[in-house]
Model the fold of this input.
Amino acid sequence: MKNKIVKRATSKLTAIKLPKWISHINSFSLFNNGNLGSDSSLALSPFKVMVQKEITDHIRNWRFIILFALISLACMGTLFATLSDGMKVLVNDTTENNFFFLNLFTKSDGTLPAYFVFVGFLGPLFGISLGFDAISSEQNRGTLSRVLAQPIPRDSILNAKFLAGIIVISVMFFALSFLVLGAGLLALGIPPTAEEFIRIMVYTVLSIVYVSFWLNLSILFSVRFRQSATSALSGIAVWLFFTIFYPLIANLIIKGYEPSKYASPKAIYFYEKLKFYLVQIMPNELFDEITSAILVPSVRSLGPLTTEQMQGAIPSSLPLGQSILLVWPQFTGLLALTLLCFLFSYLLFMKREIRSRG
Amino acid sequence: MAEKSIEINGLTKKYGQHVAVDNLTLSIDKGEIFGLLGPNGAGKSTTILMLLGLTEVDSGSVKVCGIDTTRHPLEVKRKVGYLPEDVGFYNDYTGLQNLLYVARLNNIPLEQAQKTALRTLAEVGLEEEMDKKVASYSRGMRQRLGLADVLIKNPEVIILDEPTLGLDPEGVKKFLQLIVELSRKKGITVLFSSHHLHQVQQLCDRVGIFVKGKLLAEGKISSLAEQLFSKNTFTLEGGITPMDENPNQASDSLEEVVNKMKRIKEVSLVEVDKDHFVVESKKDVSAELSRLIVNSGYGLAYLSKKKYGLDDIYHQYFQEEEKRI
Done:
């Protein structure tokens, strides 16, 4: 009788195993630590289990499915719009650049925004929705104290939530990028150049960094607020603030400094600099700059340039290395914001008293 | 002296001005079932959280199995199973999956974890329901799953925070039996917090009474009673019936009987209410008492020795507390 139960249960257990591809992800990403000592791999094993569980939870969650469907639809929509009507746009545009594939990501015929606009717009929502109830829901369900009573370091739970989110986001973004690439390949009939391909990959990686900022921010809110709804709202409030209100405020400030037509070049330069730096703390602005520099190779500078600086410049597109160099400060800023959110979540969480509920 | 499982020394925890746990010193032997008894908000849960390193210790030290909790919380958590008050599970997972997750967090390899999980589920009597989602579990089943959760890591110490809360009497009884059985079988130290006197009385070897962050008394239930009711340790309750069938024998009036009772050595208090009486004395006077009643021409309907239970101890303490305030 007992044996039967054991058999039945083990067969069920194999059935509930995680999807195969997750184990592939694990094997190529972080957990490929076969050369490490047995002790450290043992210590990592519970963490791995936690990450696996979080990923499974994300994938089975309706929230994720809906958002994924939304982003896929947006991506498909732009793709069809660009390919059906915009082919002429793509080809006609060869006067200054011949990056057909990059145009797939940045150009549209006007009926639908381009792919990068969708990523910039829905990415933050995606990040927020993956993280806003990370800690608070565990707290409310009473599972947090159960999990933390197990011999795992307390930060594991934060790290696992974060890493699982990143893995899910990465898989999704890479899938979408490859989808666009593949569709472009079919439609255009020519393969992308190596540089185009690398540019698209760099763009994908950077957009993952961008979304991970929002993910971290929402995890921070979920640590801070007990109610998931509060934390979701705070995340969306920050997002709205940066997309709508902050530009307004920045505009007001800039208006006050607007120089007259006859102002000295120095004053105008100062004004332009101010205009540039005021928007630099906006994560979405940082990401927009990254997008434009990486996907449009002809972008030579993100900030204001003086005429002296422009002198002697050859009007051609930048090589990839230079484009990356151009967005390096923006990239660093984005990463710093992400780490800052992570740091605050740590500070709040590590010393917190873990009661069973509420 | 037996090996100590839990040693608490001068433990203090403050929330702002409020002192939740005040200079607590306590030690629990290996294999013992210790009951932490106190009203809500007495600091029981806070003490338990500090035992596990789930909250910061303001001063004092906690050692579990000889390991300092504040310095090595992971080592302690490896040896301690903790069932929080109102434990939560992942509702979308089955009981077995929930259990397996915890086993894997304890670094038990998957195959071994499966075997242990099935065995543990059988131990707590959940093998029929293990493939159902936890969302469909009743309160008692969740609690038993919680116990399985605690047992799967093969702990040396189990800490149960109000485990019987919200269970029906039958469920409580079964649950407590299960704990006692497992503790005796495996020699596990159990720390059990509750505000239910009777459960603690049934279950625990030793009891600590905890009020307002302070341990008021600690010891075996019988010795606690002695500490408290040192003046009149014995209380006898009885009922008398007049013997009408035997008119030859002159029977004394009730008052006379009472007076006689009072004259018995060591008796300090007699209360009579119709045919029911209560006698308090310093030593056991039941033999003298029954003889006296029969000799006086009355029948003895019943005579019982009243044992002091935790209930009385509890109330006594609270009365004293109130008086002090």
In short: The longest strand of chain B covers residues 4-15. DSSP finds eleven helices and 14 strands in chain B.
